[in-house]
Design a protein that fits this description.
The complex is a heterotrimer of chains A (166), B (493) and C (330). With 166 residues, chain A is mainly alpha-helical. Chain A has six helices and no strands. Chain A has helices spanning 2-22, 26-46, 50-75, 88-111, 128-136, 140-162. In chain A, helix 1 runs antiparallel to helix 2 (26-46) and helix 2 (26-46) packs antiparallel against helix 3. Chain C has one domain (69-329). In chain C, 67% of the residues lie in helices and 2% in strands. In chain C, strand 1 (103-105) and strand 2 (108-110) form a beta hairpin. In chain C, helix 3 (76-92) runs parallel beside helix 11. Classes of the chains: A mainly alpha (166), B mainly alpha (493), C mainly alpha (330). Chains in contact: A-B, A-C.
Chain lengths: 166, 493, 330
Amino acid sequence: MADIVFAILAIFALVGAFGMISFHSPIHSALSFIVTILALAGIFALLSAPFLFAVQIIVYAGAIMVLMLFIIMFLNVRESNFPKEPNKFISMFFGSILLLPVNIFIVRAFLKMPEKSMEIVEDGFGNIGSLSMELFTRWLLPFEAISILLLVALVGAVVLARKEES
Amino acid sequence: MSDFISLSSLNIPSLLPMAILVFGALFIICIDLAVKNLNRSFYTILSVLFIVLDLGVLIGYNGASRGFFDTVLVDGIAILSQCIILIASAFFIPLSLSNRHFKEYEMAEYYALFLFMIVGFQFMVSSDNLIVIFIGLETASLSLYTLIALHNRAKAFEAAIKYFTMGALAAGFFALSSLIFYALTGSVEINTIEAVLKEREFQPLSAVLAGTVFMIAALGFKLSVVPSHTWTPDVYEGSSAPLAGYMSIVPKIAGFVVAMRFFEMLIASDIIWLEYILYGLVVITMTLANITALVQEDVKRMLAFSSISHAGFVLSAILIGTTQANAGLFLYWILFMFTNLGAFSMLWIVRHKNNLWDERYQHPFSKFSGMVKLMPTTATIMGVFMFALAGMPPFSVFWGKLYLISAAVNSGFIYLAVIMVVNSAIAVYYYMKLMIYMFLKEPVANTSAVYETNASTTLKVIVGFATVVTLSAVLFVEPILNIVTKFVILSGF
Amino acid sequence: MSETAVIIETIVKAVVVLSVVAGMGAFATWIERKVLAFMQRRLGPMHVGPYGVLQLAADGIKLFTKEDIIPQNALKPIFVLAPIVAATSAFVAMAAIPYFPEFTVFGYTVHPIVSDINVALLYVMGVASVGIYGPLLAGMSSANKWSLLGAARAVVQILSFEVVSGLSVLAPIMMIGSLSLIDINDFQSGGVTNWLLWKQPLAFLLFAIAGFAETNRSPFDTIEFEAEIVSGFATEYSGMRWGLFFVGEYANMITIAVLVSIIFMGGYNPIWFIPGAIVMLLKVSFWIFLFLWVRAAWPHVRPDQLMWVCWKVLMPLALVNILITGIVLV
C-alpha cells in the first residue's frame, strides 16, 4: 500500500517538476511547482513525519508560492514579454542526454547507499515534542544562526527596496 | 537526553567573537532608529571599534575547544582565519571615508550588513558542522550581494544579480553534497563523517565521489576555482573597489578553511582520483586565469583574474596537505591581504565618476599611462603593489610563494612546483604591463586632479600602511610564520 | 483492523463530512438571509416553502442551470481550476477535525474524525491557508481589474492574518503541549471553568478576529466589497463555479467556528447534563450566528486600516501574549 502511494506521489512530483521547466508562462510553471511541493509533503507524511508534512504545506504551498504568484501577478508580464524559446524542447532533450552520465552516476551512488528501513519508527517520532527538543538543545546554535540569516535577508531587502524613493 | 542542560557545557565563550559583532550590528541598526542622519565616520569608527574588540577576545585564545553541542569548534586555524578576516575588515571598512560621498556609506544598514557578513564568515571558519558552515556561508553571501547592489550603479546591480544567481547554484551544490554525506554516514560533522568513512574504507566510492564533486563545485564558486570562476571579473568590475578588494580576500580565506577541513579527511584516504581532481583544478586555475589576465584591458578585471590565479596557487597547499603547506597558505594569504588592500585602495583613490578614458571600462590601462609624470608618489606606490603581486623579491607575496613552492618540493610535488614557478613568471607580464603604462608612456591627462577626486586622508593612511607592510615584509615574515605554524600544528593540520 | 477496513471507514467518514458540511453550508445561506432580515426588521425569503426554507433548493437549481460563462481573455485552465481549489482545500482541511466525542453504533466504536494526526491544528491551518490559491488564481486568470484587485487584497489580508492566528494560537498550545485537537479538547474537560477562554482571553480575542478576517467576513470583507471592487476575485464567475467559491467560504466559516469551539470553548466535553455532541452543535451554531450578527451590526473597514490593525496592533499583542504565557509557564 505504502509503495503504491509513494509511486503515485513520486509521479506527481516528477510531473510537476517537468511541467515547471517546460511551461512557457510563469503562472503555469509556478502552479506545477505547487504540485511538486504538495507531492513532497505527501511523501513526508508517508515517512511518518507529520510535522514536516504540515510545515511543508504551510510554508511552501501556503506562503512562499503564494508570494511568488503574487509577484508574478504584480509584474504583469504579457505573453509578448516572454523570451522566445523556439528550440526549447530540442535543447532540453540534448541537455538531458548530455547530463545522462552524471545522472546515472548519482543514481548509482544513491543505490549503493547503506539500506535504511522505511518503516514507521515509533510513536513519538517526528512529532513536535521530540523535534523541538532536538532543535533547542543539539541544534540550538544553527537555529539561532538562521535567525541572523533571516534578519540579514530582511534588512537587505528593505534597504534595496527603500532606495527607490529618493 | 536530560531535560536540563548546564550552562557550562554550552561553552559560551566559544561564541563570544560572533556574539560581539551581532551585538554591534544590532546596535548600529538601533542607533539609526533613534538618531537619523548620523555621519558616516561615526558608523565607521563604531564598526571598527567592535572589530577591534572582537580581535581582543580572539587573542585571549587558549587551546582548542568545542561548544554548543559541538557545533562550534574553536581551534588554531579558526582563530587564525578569524584574525585575518577581522583585520581585513578593519582596513576595508574605513575605505568608506573617501573624499567623494557615496550614498551607501551614509546608510547605517551598510555597516550593519558588513558586520553581519563578518559574523557569517566567522561561523564558516569556526565549525566543522556542515549545517553551521552552510548557514554562515549564506549569511555572509546574502549580506555581500546586498552590499554590492547598494553601490547604486547599473553595473553594481548587474554584478549583484550575477553573483546572486551563481551563488544560489553553489549553495544548492553545497546542500546536495551535505545530503550525500549525511546519507552515507548519518552525520553532518566533518570529523564524524571522516571516522565513519574511514571505518568503511570509503565505500561506496561512487557516492563519496559524488559528494566530493558537489563540494568542490560549491567551494570552488567561493574560491573562484576555474570551472566556476566566470562570475569573478564581472562582479569585481561592477562592485566598488573596496568591496572588490574585500571579496578577493575574506570570502576566500573562509572558503580555504572549510576546504582544508573537508579535503584533509579525503586526502588522508589516499584515494588517487581525488588527488588528480585537485591537481587538475590547481593547475587549470593558475594557468587559465593567468593567461586570461594577459588580454584584459581593465586594471580591475586584470586584478580579478590575478586574484583567481593567486587562489589557485594557494589551493595547491590543500593538495599538498602537509603542515608546512597549510602554514604557507595562511602566510601567503596574510601577505596577499595587505598587498591587495593597497592595490584596490589605489583603484578606489583614482576612481572618477565619469569614464573619461574608455566607454566600457572604469580603469583601463590607458588611464594610468604616464602617471609617474603627474603624480610620482602614487605611481611608485602602485608600482610597489604590482611588484609585490608579481612575486618579486623582497616584497611581501614573494615570501608566500617561496614558502609554498618549497612545501611542494619537500613533499615531492616537483611538477607542481615547476608549474607554480612558470605561472609566477607569466604573471609578471601583466603586472609589468601596468608598470610600462605608468612609467614609460606619455600622460593622457593634463593635471593630476582627475586622479585625486576620491583621495582623502583616511584612504592615504590606509594605502601608506599597506605600502609599509608590503615593503618591509621581509622583517616580519619569520615571526608571522612561527605564529602561523604554531596555530596550524595546534589544530592538527 | 485490516488495512482495507481502515480505507473503507475513512472513505465513509470523508463522504459523511463532505455531504454534511456542504449541506450545512447551503442551509447557512438561508439562515444568513433570515437572521440579517430579522435584524433589519424584515422577513427575508418567505414565499418558497414554509418560512422560505425551500429558497435554498431554488437557489441551488438556479446555480446549476445558469449559463457557464468564461470571459474571452481569461486563462481558461486556471479560471476553471480556481474555484475547485477553493472548495477542495476548505473540505480537505476538515479531515483532521474531531466533531464529536467517540460513540458506539452496533458495537462498533466510531471516532468522528477522518484522520487523527498528531499535528492536527497545524494541518488544518496549513490546508486552509492553501485555500488562498482560490481567490489568487481566480483574480489572476479573470482578465478583469476588479478581480485582480480582489486577488491582491485577498493575498495580503489572508497571509497577514494567518500570522496573527498562528501566533495567537501558539499560547494555548504552549499550555497544552500538543497540536492534536483531541488533546486540546481533553485538556479542557470538567466544566465551563476549565475552558481555555478564561486562561487565554487575549489569544481567544485575537484568534476570533483573525478568523473573521480569514473567512472574509464583515467587517473585514475587503476582498469582495461590492462598493469598491464589484465582487472582487469572483466578479467574472457565475453559476456553479461561483457556487463553489461560496460553498468553500461557508465551509471555512464552519471550520473556524469548530476550531474556536475546540481550542477555547471546551470542545465537545459534556456540560452538566447536556451530552458533548449537542454542546458542540450549540457552540458552532452560536459562532455562525455571531458571524451573521457582526455582519449586521458593523460597517466595513478600509484595507489599509485592516493592515494597520493586523501588523501594528494584533501581531505585537499576540507576541506579548506568548511572552507572558512563557513567563507564567516557567
